């Protein structure tokens, strides 16, 4: 399959991408029967500017995926036909703290054309969906002694528990542990683990490097 | 930037060096007596002005800033004056007003000018008839002489004026030339527009037709030098209200031919060195030194990137104490985490270690390595090899992407530097930037190789040097030079990557050859003697030169069918005090006049004949 970025085609418009908070789905307006490509990129980063690189990274793929598939390092794409859109009432998210962009596409003679959005409405083809998360940080203690006279003493570890919904579409380093001045990236393996432990005398903090990922106090 | 350096250019440079005013023995010759102005009438004369000037600068090098040249053109708009200036063969003409011409004239009479006697002004008018189609053009220019004097406001000065008339007598111009000879005679009888006229033809008395005026420009300069002379008797003769013509001969150091032999030998050596350096190119990909020359370490990482890691990135690694803060899967006691292997630590910390290192490396990837890598390639590869690498870019890229992953079983801290280096060097986009440099440098090298070959092939435009003594003598000189300097030449040639660099290299080598051997600064008769001796020739150089100047190479620059009679003046121009001077002084007629040029590269003999105006009409051509 050959992948080509093509100029805007009015008869194949796809625009007004938005997040339906009730259904938690992405919805958009498009020409009747029009299939689209949804591209997920790090929060705030425009997929429109990266389409050439994304097309290049698609070369070798036999067809467009109908599940979220990682391409070009930190982007995901999913193809949604008009029928899928109708059936699912949109397209599911692949995690928050990301920017989603909709592109129309067509396939003919083994050539897939991905159409640029109209210049005037480039802002309306993308939706940036932040995520508010709560991370629990607790000092681990051990009880020494028996019953009423027992004493709870710190073990020297802190536990950090991540929310379950954070796992999808996360890029390593979007969150960082801060111990004093020292920063350590949070990895997707840690999110899958849910609870990790840090040895520190001071309470560590978790900071976000992704403006779409907001940590609640 | 395009560069059209050819062998001719290099030979010309050699000739200029040898003939230049700072070459051996220049200066100390006679000087002009009176302020002088050269006025070139018409486009053809203006075209030759630079050559006349260059020849005068050779005779009077210290007067270069003081000798002034004007051009005059006439068209339907009127008369226009031009100031002609330049040096080293490169001259420009700038249109000037009469006021500006006055300033120029004032300058040659100025307090700071070095002319010895400001009581007179020598004016030399030069007229070239090449473009004339009717005799009226000649008449019009003759009239212009007075117009020019009026315009310049010199009528109240005591003027010594001379017209040098270059008469073009090509076959296609015989008819008009005949008319001009007759017209000259008539006009000069009617009105003495100048005190004297020198008539030079491009058709010599041996029937040779000069394709260019070159030698005549030299003769004109010699006439000017002889006539503007502290020896009053000579000046008076040459401004003596007559029409003159000349015979002329010269013998000079054959600087062009010597230069050609030197440059040809240098080019032969260049060609053989290029072939030698390029001989290993075909097997370059199999060369065991190739990885190191490409800047790869033993581990297959780029040494430029390794150096960056050592200098900049290592300081960003955590301390042993900070390693303890890395998050773990559980709160069990694992002892000191810094004692784990890299693999163990990464697993325990859920890939945090690799992610941490990746963060460090990510920032470094945006750096630009192209300048440093281009320098490395220039140092390690000859130009032809760079072109070869460009032709095999895929194979080279594959070599660059063979960084070996460091062993995982080493201690996490001690293995960190190697891991950073591996991560930086294995990134395809980073390696692509290095491949792009090879592509660019290879393309430049290809262009350089093409231009170098064009330079080598430019020898086909040269005529062979006839004189076998020059060829053999200087071939030996070059052989001796290469015996001493070949390895330096090879080393320098290897480092050259563009045609400008090659030109500089060749020019510097030529300069070194000239300054390194005293034969190049010898007076020309001594140089000639050296060649004759080296060739075991029995001739005496001074006798040979004398014969050449007085018999063998003497030509009259006007064809006449009447007897020119006794000469008005026989003169020899050369550097006084040399053995050649002594020899000529001893053997030539005591009536010979010697003019000290202070220039030891040449000796000239000129004989000046008076032409009666009647003879011009009656004997004017065939």
Tell me what the structure shows.
The complex is a heterodimer of chains A (217) and B (622). Chain A is mostly beta strands and 217 residues long. Chain A folds into two domains: 2-129, no CATH class; 133-216, no CATH class. Chain A contains three helices and 18 strands. Chain A has helices at 51-58, 82-88, 188-193, and strands at residues 2-6, 14-20, 25-30, 36-42, 69-71, 75-80, 91-92, 98-108, 111-115, 126-129, 131-134, 136-144, 151-161, 175-179, 182-185, 195-199, 205-208, 213-216. In chain A, the strands form five sheets. In chain A, strands 1, 4, 5, 6, 8, 9 and 10 form a seven-stranded mixed β-sheet that branches. Chain A has a three-stranded antiparallel β-sheet with strand order 2-3-7. Chain A has a three-stranded antiparallel β-sheet with strand order 12-13-16. The radius of gyration of chain A is 22 Å and the shape is elongated. The termini of chain A are far apart. The model of chain A has no long low-confidence stretch (mean pLDDT 88). With 622 residues, chain B is of the alpha/beta class. Chain B has three domains: 32-241, Rossmann fold, CATH 3.40.50; 300-437, no CATH class; 526-618, no CATH class. Chain B is built from 24 helices and twelve strands. Chain B has helices spanning 7-19, 42-59, 98-108, 135-152, 174-190, 214-227, 232-238, 255-278, 290-293, 303-313, 320-323, 342-348, 352-364, 370-380, 383-391, 393-400, 412-426, 428-457, 468-494, 499-516, 524-534, 541-552, 579-587, 613-618, and strands at residues 36-41, 68-75, 78-87, 90-96, 120-128, 158-167, 196-201, 243-252, 555-556, 569-574, 593-596, 602-611. In chain B, strands 1, 2, 3, 4, 5, 6, 7, 8, 9, 10, 11 and 12 form a twelve-stranded mixed β-sheet that branches. In chain B, a hairpin with a 2-residue loop joins β2 and β3. Chain A binds chain B through residues 140, 155, 157, 159-160, 172-173, 177, 179, 182, 184-190, 193, 196-200, 204, and chain B through 318, 322, 324-331, 350-352, 355-356, 358-359.
């Amino acid at each position: 399959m050959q992948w080509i970025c093509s100029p805007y085609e009015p008869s194949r418009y796809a625009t007004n991408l938005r997040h339906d908070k009730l259904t938690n789905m992405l919805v958009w307006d498009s020409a009747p029967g029009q299939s689209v490509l949804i591209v997920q990129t790090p929060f705030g980063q425009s997929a429109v500017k990266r389409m050439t690189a994304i097309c290049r990274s698609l070369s070798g793929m036999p067809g467009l995926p109908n599940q979220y598939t990682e391409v070009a390092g930190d982007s995901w794409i999913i193809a949604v036909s008009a029928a899928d859109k109708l059936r699912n009432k949109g397209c599911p998210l692949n995690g928050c703290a990301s920017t989603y962009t909709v592109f129309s596409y067509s396939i003919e003679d083994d050539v897939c054309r991905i159409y640029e959005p109209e210049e005037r409405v480039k802002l309306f083809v993308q939706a940036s969906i932040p995520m508010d998360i709560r991370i629990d940080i607790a000092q681990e203690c051990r009880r020494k002694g028996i019953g009423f006279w027992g004493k709870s003493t710190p073990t020297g570890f802190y536990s950090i528990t991540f929310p379950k919904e954070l796992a999808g579409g996360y890029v390593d380093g979007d969150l960082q542990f801060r111990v004093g001045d020292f920063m350590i990236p949070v990895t997707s393996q840690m999110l899958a683990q849910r609870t990790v432990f840090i040895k520190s005398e001071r309470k560590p903090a978790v900071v976000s490097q992704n403006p779409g990922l907001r940590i609640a106090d | 930037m395009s560069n059209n350096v050819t062998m001719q250019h290099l030979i010309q440079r050699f000739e200029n060096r040898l003939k230049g005013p700072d070459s051996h023995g220049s200066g100390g010759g006679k000087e002009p007596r009176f302020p002088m102005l050269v006025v070139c009438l018409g486009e053809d004369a203006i075209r030759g002005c630079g050559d006349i000037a260059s020849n005068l600068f050779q005779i009077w090098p210290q007067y270069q800033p003081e000798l002034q040249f004007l051009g005059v053109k006439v068209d339907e708009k009127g008369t226009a004056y031009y100031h002609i200036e330049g040096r080293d063969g490169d001259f420009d003409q700038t249109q000037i007003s009469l006021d500006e011409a006055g300033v120029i004239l004032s300058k040659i009479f100025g307090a700071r000018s070095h002319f010895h006697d400001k009581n007179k002004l020598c004016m030399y008018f030069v007229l070239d008839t090449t473009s004339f189609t009717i005799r009226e053009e000649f008449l019009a220019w003759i009239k212009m002489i007075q117009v020019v004097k009026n315009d310049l406001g010199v009528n109240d000065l005591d003027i010594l004026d001379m017209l040098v008339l270059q008469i073009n007598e090509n076959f296609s111009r015989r008819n008009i030339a005949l008319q001009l000879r007759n017209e000259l005679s008539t006009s000069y009888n009617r009105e003495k527009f100048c005190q004297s006229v020198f008539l030079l033809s491009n058709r010599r008395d041996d029937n040779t037709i000069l394709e260019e005026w070159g030698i005549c420009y030299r003769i004109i300069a010699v006439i000017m030098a002889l006539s503007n002379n502290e020896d009053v008797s000579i000046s008076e003769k040459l401004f003596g209200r007559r029409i003159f013509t000349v015979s002329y001969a010269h013998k000079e150091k054959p600087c062009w031919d010597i230069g050609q032999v030197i440059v040809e030998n240098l080019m032969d050596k260049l060609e053989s060195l290029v072939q030698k350096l390029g001989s290993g190119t075909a097997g370059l990909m199999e060369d065991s030194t190739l990885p190191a020359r490409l800047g790869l370490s033993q581990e297959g990482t780029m040494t430029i990137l390794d150096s960056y890691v050592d200098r900049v990135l290592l300081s960003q690694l955590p301390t042993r104490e900070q390693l303890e803060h890395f998050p773990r899967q559980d709160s069990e006691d694992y002892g000191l985490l810094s004692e784990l292997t890299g693999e163990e630590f990464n697993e325990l910390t859920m890939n945090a270690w690799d992610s941490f290192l990746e963060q460090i490396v990510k920032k470094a990837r945006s750096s630009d390595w192209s300048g440093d890598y281009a320098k490395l390639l220039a140092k390690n590869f000859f130009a032809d090899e760079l072109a070869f690498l460009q032709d095999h870019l895929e194979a080279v890229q594959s070599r660059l992407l063979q960084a070996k992953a460091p062993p995982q079983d080493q201690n996490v801290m001690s293995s960190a530097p190697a891991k950073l280096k591996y991560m930086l060097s294995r990134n395809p986009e980073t390696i692509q930037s290095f491949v792009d440099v090879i592509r660019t440098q290879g393309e430049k090298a290809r262009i350089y190789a093409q231009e170098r070959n064009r330079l080598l092939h430019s020898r086909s435009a040269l005529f062979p040097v006839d004189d076998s003594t020059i060829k053999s003598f200087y071939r030996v000189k070059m052989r001796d030079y290469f015996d001493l300097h070949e390895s330096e030449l090879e080393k320098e040639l290897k480092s050259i990557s563009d045609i400008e660099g090659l030109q500089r290299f060749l020019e510097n080598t030529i300069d070194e050859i000239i300054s390194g051997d005293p034969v190049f600064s010898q007076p020309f008769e001594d140089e000639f003697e050296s060649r004759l001796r080296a060739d075991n020739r029995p001739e005496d150089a001074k006798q040979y030169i004398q014969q050449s100047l007085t018999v063998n190479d003497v030509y009259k620059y006007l064809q006449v069918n009447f007897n020119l009679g006794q000469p008005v003046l026989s003169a020899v121009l050369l550097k006084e005090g040399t053995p050649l001077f002594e020899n000529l002084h001893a053997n030539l007629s005591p009536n010979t006049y010697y003019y000290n040029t202070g220039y030891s590269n040449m000796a000239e003999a000129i004989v000046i004949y008076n032409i009666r105006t009647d003879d011009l009409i009656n004997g004017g051509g065939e």
